[in-house]
Amino acid sequence: MGAEVVPGMAWAKAFLESKGAIFRCVEHEAVTKPVDSARVRGVQLHQIAKALVYLVDGKPLLVVLPGDLEVDELKLRKASGAKEVKLASPADVKKHTGCEVGLVPPVITGIGKIVDKALLGNEEVSFNAGIATAGIIICGRAEYRVLPDLPGSPRQQACAKRKGIVVRGQGCSCARLQGQQ
Predict the structure, then answer these.
(1) In a domain, 1, yes or no
(2) By the 8 A CB rule, do 114 and 151 touch?
(3) In what order do the strands lie in the sheet with 23-27?
(4) How far is CA 25 from CA 7, 28, 48, 109, 133, in A?
(5) I need a labelling partner for 24 at 20 to 30 A (CA). Which of 6, 48, 160, 176 fits?
(6) pTM for the whole thing?
(7) Contacts of 50 (CB under 8 A, 6+ apart)
(8) pLDDT tens digits, residue range 2-51?
(9) What is the CATH number of the domain that holds 57?
(10) Quick check: is 2 in a domain?
């Protein structure tokens, strides 16, 4: 599995073990930004699964995407069918996840999720474990399999910008998605 886990991430380790996931824990200096997480964990920025909390018509939604992408809020609003989409405040992030901004793990339970399929193309994916001084590295496909609370609708996809192209999750093609807009 990995090195001895620091106490603050014991719940994430226990969750992954309960799902039968193969992963390793990495202890490092305190970081909260994807670029710093990639550096200290020895992975590429696109292998970082950043988890951003949004309020979609007032309800929390976790958008999980590669560290080198940004959420296109207009596309997220259209894909979710919401009237209002906004990035959650630090107080809302804490309220809905129990974590500080920059430390929310994608495996957190009790919140709906949209996951960008670009993460699945990575052999390994790394994510925060709720604390600044440790992270988890897991197989990309296993990360998707163990994520709780994934929506089932194909319209519930992650929206991200990369060179002007919208990237969304769960295997949808760009052509099909453009037809939904």
Answers:
(1) no
(2) yes
(3) 23-27, 134-139, 124-128
(4) 12, 10, 14, 19, 11
(5) 160
(6) 0.77
(7) 34, 64, 65, 66, 67, 127
(8) 333 344 577 788 888 888 888 899 999 999 999 999 999 999 999 999 99
(9) 3.90.960.10
(10) no
